[in-house]
Write a structure and sequence with these properties.
about 750 residues; alpha+beta; Beta-Lactamase; Alpha-Beta Plaits; six-stranded antiparallel sheet; five-stranded antiparallel sheet
């Protein structure tokens, strides 16, 4: 009994320890959450400020970019351009000056400032940086010449259609206006500031530069910050600022050498930390008091009476005096138990011990018997499982060894064994039907191998439906089937062939009908070699296939084109327009009527390979990602494979294959260039590009004819044959081609 009590107290001690540890772990967990909260708060403050600054820079940068594009397109006089820049300055409060400097050092400035004679402004940092980087740039912040503003310049180069630099558009904005959101404290113990690439502080809470001030260094407000930052990465690190521990979050600002930094001190959450610590101590103290009271009451009301009862019972068990009786005690919760034990002792004495012994022996015997029975059951179950596995494995192996895994009919191994087994006189006449599925390759190329597998399954199903129950149907090869007909005349075999063809007409894969070329032969005398019968059936099958193949493949091609147009009507209209453009182009280029006819067909089928591209990709709104672009680029090769299956379209297939090659060799799929690209492919490429530009697509609006002509002109000699571009614009479109300067 004492060891039970010791375990009881031990369990109580363990319980108290577990509660204390649990509370401590919770305390640590909440402290960690506060630490993460501080870190997250710093990162969120940084991201918010960066987003606002970046948004402003993007908006102001877009103004300069749009003005550069306007100047590049031409069409505005100097006075018109000056008026337009003044209007831009009035509408955008951040700018106090917008100007354009040509490559010849001629300036148009919205502020009216005119450079003194002899001053070469093309050497200014903003002009040199825009010219060198060839894109929109942001200069470093600096105090302007009048010493009254901290400014930065946004500049963008302007190029003519030939790619030569015309000049640079620029605008001066006041840094203080852009960074004003930083100059006020957002929260207690939280700071945000901006530095440039030379560690100068551009913005800090409460800091305002006067005209004569030098730019302050970041080491003046955040000592050690320059050692923490790492290149252009975004990070959040532990940092001490103004004597306070916390987290410093920083990241670069779009298009500039600026860095946005946000510091959040741990002290922001001190009150929460104090409340958690108080809750932990109160919980621990309450748990200790409750456990102590519980143990005291248990000892007084249960453990002490139980120990006394144990002592008395031990005296009964160990003593030789069977007349010994337990003493009743007032207030003892076990008084009833004592009385009951005394009554039992009076009635049983010796018989009790004998009965107890027999009962123990019986329980041991039952346990041994139960263990033996369970062992037998387990052995029986294991044997049953092993037996069922063996039977299932044998059935599966037997099935797989004689059946085709795709169609479920017999395989070639089984068929060859059956030919040997059936080659007896009592089975004469023996007829053999050899079948070959038509259009498997074009189906695989157009709709994928899954559709090709479905075609093979439907063909097998058609033969099963047309044959008798005891006829043997087997898959002989990739798309070949053999049917063994013992006791069947050749005339009967021909009737079965008719039934197979009728069943095939009812089977379709999408819009394509299932078709099988079939041939039959019969062995009628024992002297004939059944292998020759098989060869004869195969020869007749190939003869049938030769007469049917071109027509069937042509029908499949028409179905593929029809399916593509039904799936995407935009492609149908595009193909018709390109075909007409190609026909007109061929006449303008002086091609023969035969070549013009080919051109018209190429225009109609140049995108037939898109049948293998998902509708979700063809109809996608917006630009393709890398994976989708890879799929789209395959359409010319897929179209080539589809058209190559039709003998009469083999030459057309080659023109379709190369219609996305470029004059400079950077096209696809082969990367050939110049005159290596077939003439009809080069013509189709121009007609295809022009129609695509002048009609709406899923990812952009149509260009005007002038814009499309401009794009063709710009890409002549790189993407397109320059001589053919001149013919197309001048003779097909009837437009005057302006010479490129």
């Amino acid at each position: 009994m004492k060891h039970i009590i010791r375990k009881f107290y031990l369990a109580g001690s363990i319980f108290i320890a577990v509660v204390a540890v649990g509370l401590f772990i919770q305390f640590l967990y909440f402290n960690a959450l506060l630490d993460d909260g501080t870190k997250t708060a710093a990162a969120m403050a940084r991201d918010t400020a960066t987003a606002r600054i970046t948004g402003s820079l993007r908006e102001e940068g877009q103004i300069v970019s749009d003005l550069a594009a306007l100047i590049a397109n031409g069409g505005m006089s100097g006075d018109e351009l000056l008026a337009y820049m003044k209007k831009l300055q009035q509408d955008n409060s951040y700018y106090y000056s917008i100007y354009y400097l040509s490559s010849g050092n001629e300036m148009i400035n919205s502020s009216g400032w005119t450079p003194p004679p002899g001053l070469d402004l093309t050497m200014r940092p903003w002009y040199a940086k825009a010219e060198a980087e060839k894109k929109l740039v942001f200069t470093e912040a600096f105090i302007n010449a009048s010493k009254d503003r901290l400014i930065m310049t946004i500049a963008c180069p302007v190029y003519d259609p030939q790619g030569d630099l015309k000049g640079v558009v620029a605008g001066d904005i006041e840094v203080g206006g852009m960074t004003g959101i930083i100059n006020e404290r957002e929260y207690r113990d939280r700071y945000a500031f901006i530095i440039d690439g030379k560690d100068n502080v551009l913005a800090y809470p409460g800091m305002v530069y006067s005209p004569d001030d030098d730019l302050k260094k970041v080491s003046d407000i955040a000592p050690g910050f320059e050692k923490v930052i790492s290149g252009n990465k975004i990070d959040t690190v532990r940092f001490t600022l103004n004597g306070k521990e916390g987290f410093l979050a920083y990241e670069p600002i779009f298009g500039t050498d600026w860095i946005m930094a946000s510091f959040t001190a741990d002290s922001m959450f001190d009150s929460v930390d104090d409340r958690i610590r108080f809750m932990f101590l109160m919980g621990l103290f309450s748990s200790l008091i409750l456990c102590g009271l519980y143990l005291i009451l248990q000892k007084k009301n249960f453990i002490d009476p139980m120990l006394s009862l144990e002592t008395d019972i031990r005296n009964i068990s160990n003593g030789d005096n069977f007349s010994y009786r337990l003493q009743s005690k007032s207030g003892d919760i076990f008084s009833t138990v004592r009385d009951s034990i005394n009554a039992l002792l009076d009635k049983n004495k010796i018989l009790f011990k004998e009965l107890e012994q027999k009962q123990q022996e019986l329980e041991r015997a039952n346990q041994e018997l139960e263990a033996y029975v369970q062992q037998l059951k387990a052995s029986e179950q294991e044997l049953r499982v092993q037996y069922e596995l063996i039977i299932a494995s044998e059935k599966q192996n037997a099935y797989l060894s004689y059946h085709d895994h795709l169609t479920g009919i017999y395989n070639r191994r089984f068929c060859e064994e059956e030919i040997k087994r059936l080659d007896t006189e009592r089975n004469l006449p023996i007829s053999i039907i050899m079948g070959d599925v038509n259009g498997l390759k074009i189906t695989n190329d157009a709709f994928g191998h899954e559709s090709g597998d479905t075609l093979l399954k439907r063909a097998a199903a058609a033969m099963q439906a047309a044959c008798r129950s005891d006829d043997i149907i087997a898959r002989w090869g990739g798309d070949e089937y053999v049917i063994l007909l013992p006791g069947t005349k050749l005339e009967e075999a021909e009737e079965i062939i008719k039934r197979i063809r009728n069943m095939c007409e009812k089977e379709k894969i999408g819009a394509i009908s299932v078709s099988i070329s079939l041939g039959a032969a019969a062995k009628t005398s024992p002297a004939e070699d059944i292998q020759k019968t098989l060869q004869s059936a195969e020869d007749r099958m190939y003869s049938s296939k030769m007469s049917e193949s071109e027509k069937l493949t042509g029908n499949v091609l028409k179905t593929i084109i029809s399916t593509l147009h039904e799936k995407n009507p935009r492609e149908e209209h595009h193909s018709e327009r390109v075909s007409q453009l190609c026909q007109n182009f061929g006449k303008a280029a002086g091609l023969s009527e035969a070549e013009i006819g080919k051109l018209k067909i190429v225009g109609l089928v140049h995108d037939v390979g898109k049948i293998a591209i998902e509708e979700s990709v063809l109809d996608k709104q917006g630009w393709f990602n890398e994976e989708e672009w890879k799929k789209v680029r395959l359409h010319s090769e897929i179209g080539f494979r589809i058209l190559s299956t039709v003998n009469s379209m083999s030459e057309i297939a080659e023109y379709v294959l190369y219609h996305h090659e470029r004059w400079d060799g950077r096209g696809y799929p082969k990367g050939i260039k110049g005159m290596e690209i077939p003439l009809l492919s080069r013509i189709t490429a121009i007609a295809d590009a022009y129609d695509a530009m002048t009609n709406d697509s899923s990812y952009r609006k149509a260009f005007s004819e002038d814009m499309a002509i401009l794009q063709l002109t710009r890409n002549a000699g790189t993407q397109f044959d320059p001589d053919l571009v001149k013919i197309f614009i001048g003779q097909v479109l009837g437009r005057t081609l302006e010479p490129r300067s």
